[in-house]
Design brief:
By secondary structure, the protein is an alpha/beta fold. Helices cover 27% and strands 28% of the residues. The protein has 7 helices and 15 strands. The strands form 4 sheets. Strands 3-2-7-13-14-15 form a 6-stranded mixed beta sheet, with no helix packed on it. The protein is elongated, with a radius of gyration of 18 Å. The relative contact order is 0.21.
């Protein structure tokens, strides 16, 4: 079934003019068309419509995800937060004290991938050595890319330290491309960069809605 995802501003990608009241038409796991919502809706009267507040952009890319998921532990809320707190735990001494097992790393990675999806992330770079973590990442739907150079420390928010929001985009939105995008409750790219990826309200990968803010 075709689905029209529409937002107040559509940003197809770097160097492409934004479209006010734009939309992306998705069929299966691919983008069929994009442009003004009114035009696409008129041509596809039977398409399901999902209306989102804010800006619809390409999904985001996080670099150094192996550090975020294999050298950072995410406490299980609410079962561990009373003892460990809610903040991610990293550092050799702190992790040694947790007596981490492969199963525990896998559970933590599942929570970590949910945090990434909730920030509009659709792809990560890194090489995962722990099988349970690798399985969690693959099952999450995130695209895994080879390790790549990056500056600074890895962060759950791929916009942190960027000069522009477009620097964190993974690819561009165009007909025939994978249906892989995110929506943020902001007015434009400048506000997205300022407020960060926690403003994400929806993440779509392969045409599937994998995160929706409740």
């Amino acid at each position: 079934m075709r689905t029209l995802h529409t937002a107040e501003l559509l940003v197809p990608g770097p160097g492409v003019a934004p479209v006010r009241d734009g939309a992306v038409l998705v069929e299966g796991d691919r983008i069929e068309a994009l442009g003004p919502f009114a035009e696409l809706a008129a041509r596809n009267p039977h398409a399901r419509v999902r209306r989102w507040p804010g800006v619809l952009t390409p999904g985001l890319l996080v670099r150094g995800a192996d550090t975020l998921l294999e050298r950072t532990y995410y406490p299980d809320d609410p079962y561990e937060t009373a003892e460990l707190g809610s903040d991610p735990i990293s550092g050799p001494d702190a992790l040694d004290a947790l007596k981490m097992t492969e199963a525990r790393w896998g559970n933590s990675a599942r929570r970590g991938t949910q945090k990434l999806l909730s920030r509009g992330v659709v792809a990560v770079t890194g090489r995962f050595a722990i099988p349970a973590v690798r399985t969690a990442v693959v099952r999450s739907g995130l695209t895994v890319l080879p390790p790549a150079p990056y500056e600074g420390l890895p962060a759950l928010d791929p916009l942190a330290g960027r000069e522009s929001a477009a620097d964190a985009f993974h690819g561009a939105l165009e007909p025939g491309a994978p249906a892989r995008f995110a929506v943020f409750a902001v007015a434009d790219e400048a506000e997205l960069l300022s407020r960060g990826a926690t403003t994400c309200v929806a993440t779509v990968i392969g045409g599937r809605l994998l995160h929706r803010r409740r």
